[in-house]
Amino acid sequence: MHSDRRPPEDTPAAGDARTPDTARPTAPALPGATTLRWEIVCLLALSLGASAVSAVISFLGVLTAPESLAEHTASLVRPQADQRPWLDLSWQLYRVAVGLAPVLLAGYLLHRSAESMRTIGFDLRRPWFDLRSGTVLAALIGAGGLAVYVVSWRLGMTVTIAPSALEGNWWDVPVLVLQAAKNGILEEVIVVGYLLHRLGQLGWTPWKAVVASSVLRAFYHLYQGVGMFFGNLVMGLVFGWFYHRYGRVMPLVVAHTVIDIVAFVGSVYLVGRLDWLPS
What we know:
By secondary structure, this protein is mainly alpha-helical. It is 61% helix and 4% strand. The protein is built from nine helices and two strands, in the order H-H-E-H-H-H-E-H-H-H-H. It has helices at 33-45, 48-63, 85-99, 101-112, 127-154, 172-201, 206-220, 226-246, 250-270; strands at 73-77, 160-164. The protein has a two-stranded parallel ribbon with strand order 1-2. The two termini are 40 Å apart. The model is unreliable at 11-26 (pLDDT under 50).
């Protein structure tokens, strides 16, 4: 969405000519345009921008291998310590916590410009709206995404996705739920809320920003194959439209989390039992 606040030109700070008796406190100014651009680059380089580069390299590796795409498997949640469940659990919780660090950084960067997570609608002010709209989005995007995955896999355009490769520990389902929540918070706060907000402040038109956000989302999912690249591109366009329309990222977090919970936990019980699901 567009913001009414536009960044000033980057100029050296000048001393305030007013005396202490006449000076009035003012809100921190929005950083200059160049500073905002570097802020975006640095945050993405530490999070989903780096994931996009990694996904492209992974996809090129799979694409140049002798096997077809469908013969490769992408495991989304993997064991971190074979046959050592408590150590594995520690690593799983560590990965969830570290994965959320860029969200904390985004919150700090917004606070630095006299904004907050409430600015992008990452709060609990409208819980019923967030839950209702998030659930509807999850149903629509989840059903469409599943169809794209199955069809593109059968066409040899997508790798076999193993949402969970955990080893049947008592804590598997809670960890999968935490991983799903981490994905929802990280991706929607960074790639939709923060990025669209900052690009709007830089003067980008809403749909130009939405397309850029959607392309980034598609690229960091490219390791899953061509079919899921386009599936996530469409998901990004829908989520971007929703954010531009309502100015809230929380329903998108709910939707993404629900989609991943169904995928992660459902794979434990359904993959191998339903003939039409790739396995």
